[in-house]
Design a protein that fits this description.
mainly alpha, 6 helices, 63% helix
Length: 133
């Protein structure tokens, strides 16, 4: 929670920051919160900011997604199941998401989406794959 933010307030993107949503629910929920929010910010890249006032601009979405990726690593550990499952989910976006999303009409959004997905994917260590095979 930011220094000037009160419980129940929404963050700059219109979504409640993870710490506001899950602060009293325990470590597993915090991990899930970070994982879910990084995915939401990733997906927001392919939306037009004018579609809804709560959709962040791409720069804010990238910053928030990366912050949640690093926070997930911090709260759960490099070799946690949460890191493994989030890494696998981001891999799915990289491999087949463009096949089901209509991003071909938005090449810049598509490029930003892929770059952010790659950056998030690379935050998580490859070694975690060996632990959960």
């Amino acid at each position: 929670m930011g220094p000037n933010q009160q419980r129940g307030e929404r963050g700059p993107c219109g979504w409640k920051p993870c710490s506001l949503v899950v602060c009293d629910l325990g470590c597993c929920q915090v991990q899930l919160g970070h994982s879910n929010l990084l995915e939401i910010y990733l997906l927001s890249i392919i939306l037009e900011p004018n579609d809804h006032p709560d959709i962040p601009n791409p720069e804010e979405a990238i910053r928030c997604a990366m912050a949640h990726a690093y926070a997930l690593m911090e709260v759960s550990g490099r070799d946690s199941l949460s890191v493994y499952t989030t890494r696998r989910q981001i891999r799915r976006y990289l491999k087949w998401f463009n096949l089901i999303a209509n991003t071909e009409e938005k090449p810049l959004a598509n490029e930003e989406f892929r770059n952010l997905a790659k950056n998030i994917f690379n935050v998580f260590p490859k070694e975690v794959e060996d632990k959960y095979k």
